[in-house]
Amino acid sequence: MRKLVLAAVMASVFCTPAMARQKQFTAAGYSLPADKPLTILVMRPDVQVGQLQTGGAIEPNADWTAAARTHLDEALTATSKARGIDLRPIGASSADSDRLVADYEALHRAVATAIIVHKIVGAKLPTKKDKFDWTLGPGAQKLGELSGANYALFFYGRDNFASSGRKALQVAGMLGCLVGFCVIASGGQHDYYASLVELSTGNIVWFNLMRGSEGDVREGPGAQAMVDAILSSMPTKPGQPVAVAVK
Prior knowledge:
This protein is of the alpha/beta class. Helices cover 38% and strands 22% of the residues. The protein has 6 helices and 8 strands. Strands 1, 2, 3, 4, 5, 6, 7 and 8 form an 8-stranded mixed β-sheet that branches. Strand 7 and strand 8 (203-211) form a beta hairpin. Helix 1 crosses helix 5. The protein is globular and about 50 Å long. 34% of the residues are buried.
């Protein structure tokens, strides 16, 4: 009986979203300009929410994704007001500007993937060593011309919640551990990152990866907790130095 109770407790832990872990990188020695106010263009949040099926496949859920995007947008607005940040939502209205925004969203996604691979997964680039030196290129100035902002905030998230079948599989794996056959299926997956880009140069001056959950982004309070957590270390004041990169 004690073993069954222990297994149930352990299974409940594995079925509960993991606490978020963050990994922050910044351009060492960089400070926000002290001679002008900080205006940040908020790019369209690249967020998708789905369900992790019993067999491990992820099934996107359009309703969950729409709800998450709405709540995250509201959370970004609330956070900007609370912290006194001048956040400007992207307002592309022409075919050319829409294409420009889409191009830089795709470029940023590619660069962010490279950051994760080479700074976090461990495949370090010899030319960069321990430096955090990543850029979208000087063409990013066009985003500043489009919006009047001097920085851009990119926000990405993939949030997958375990189905009842997947949770049952996790419990079965924990029970199997009691008889010596221990195969535990992974639970819901929650991966987010945000970055601050200096539009005059295209340089990424702050990047924060968060894995795990601060709350259910399909609901307002959960989305607010997620935004507050991932943006907590982002520099926002003129002249504010950016912390030394975490290696």
